[in-house]
């Protein structure tokens, strides 16, 4: 699921650029509104909520709170979605200000989401081949740091696009892996609430710092420093938490094969 939505994020900016050559932004938004109205109508008519009965062995786990989580896990799960939102929301403005070309601006967004989509595809394949999740996780942390550093350290169009792609490529596997690590501690929506806080806070902080410094490049240090913090928290993350996630995945595969 985390792979599928990235496909739309990768394709739609290019479609929007093409559409603007033949129509106005008002028409594009009107068409989007009609699409969502149609989807909303279909959900209202066709979809029905059905009660879910949880086994007695699962029900107590749904009541667990943050007190049962390792503190590094609580902190780290805020960061990948926040970095993703900051980069996805601000790189277009940053590239537009530095390169002054609409085509390059659109390409930057496509590079980011394409990198994220490709890495999630590769990570899913590698994990099915029994590659350790911890190795994939730390390689991804390093890729995000390298990509964010490239992005804000140069004015070269090519290097900026490479940095954007590398950032997206590194971010791809991180959130799904952290989600898998967190699920044994809580299977309710608390995980997604924490991730949503990061998605809301880091882009806001990026904008605040950019305005205060009158420089969007200064604001983009927020996702860079957040990626460094993510690596540090990953080092302090209990190995048992990742091991539990790996055991859970392998157990599911064994049961499905059986």
Explain the overall architecture.
The radius of gyration is 20 Å and the shape is globular. It has 12 helices and no strands. By secondary structure, the chain is mainly alpha-helical.
Quick synopsis:
The protein has 258 residues and is mainly alpha-helical.
> What low-confidence regions span 5 or more consecutive residues with pLDDT below 50?
55-64
Instruction: Tell me the series of helices and strands, N- to C-terminal.
Output: HHHHHHHHHHHH
Strand content: under 5%
Helix share bin: over 70%
> Outline, from the CA principal axes?
globular
Secondary-structure class: mainly alpha
Oligomer: single chain
- Overall radius of gyration: 20 Å
- Biggest sheet: strands, sense, closure? none
Number of DSSP E strands:
0
Overall pLDDT level: 80
Distance between the termini: 25 Å
Question: Total helix count?
Answer: 12
How do the helices and strands line up, and which of them pair or pack?
Layout: H1 2-20, H2 25-46, H3 71-76, H4 79-99, H5 102-128, H6 133-153, H7 157-171, H8 174-182, H9 190-213, H10 216-219, H11 221-236, H12 239-257
Helix pairs in contact: 1-5, 4-5, 4-7, 4-9, 4-11, 5-7, 6-7, 6-11
């Amino acid at each position: 699921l985390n792979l599928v939505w990235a496909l739309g994020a990768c394709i739609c900016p290019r479609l929007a650029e093409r559409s603007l050559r033949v129509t106005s932004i008002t028409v594009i938004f009107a068409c989007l509104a009609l699409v969502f109205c149609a989807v909303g109508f279909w959900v209202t008519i066709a979809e029905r909520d059905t009660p879910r009965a949880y086994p007695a062995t699962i029900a107590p786990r749904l009541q667990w709170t943050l007190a049962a989580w390792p503190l590094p896990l609580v902190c780290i799960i805020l960061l990948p979605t926040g970095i993703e939102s900051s980069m996805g929301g601000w790189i277009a403005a940053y590239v537009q200000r530095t390169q002054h070309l609409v085509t390059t601006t659109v390409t930057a967004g496509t590079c980011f989401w394409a990198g994220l989509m490709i890495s999630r595809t590769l990570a899913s394949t590698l994990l099915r081949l029994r590659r350790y999740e911890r190795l994939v996780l730390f390689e991804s942390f390093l890729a995000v740091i390298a990509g964010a550093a490239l992005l804000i350290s140069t004015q070269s169009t090519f290097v900026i696009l490479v940095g954007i792609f590398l950032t997206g490529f590194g971010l791809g596997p991180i959130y799904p892996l952290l989600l898998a690590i967190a699920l044994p501690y809580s299977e309710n929506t608390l995980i997604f609430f924490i991730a949503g806080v990061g998605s809301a806070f880091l882009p806001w902080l990026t904008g605040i710092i950019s305005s205060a410094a009158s420089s969007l490049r200064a604001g983009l240090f927020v996702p860079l420093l957040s990626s460094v913090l993510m690596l540090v928290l990953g080092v302090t993350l209990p190995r048992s938490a990742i091991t539990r996630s790996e055991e859970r995945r392998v157990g599911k595969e064994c049961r499905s094969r059986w």
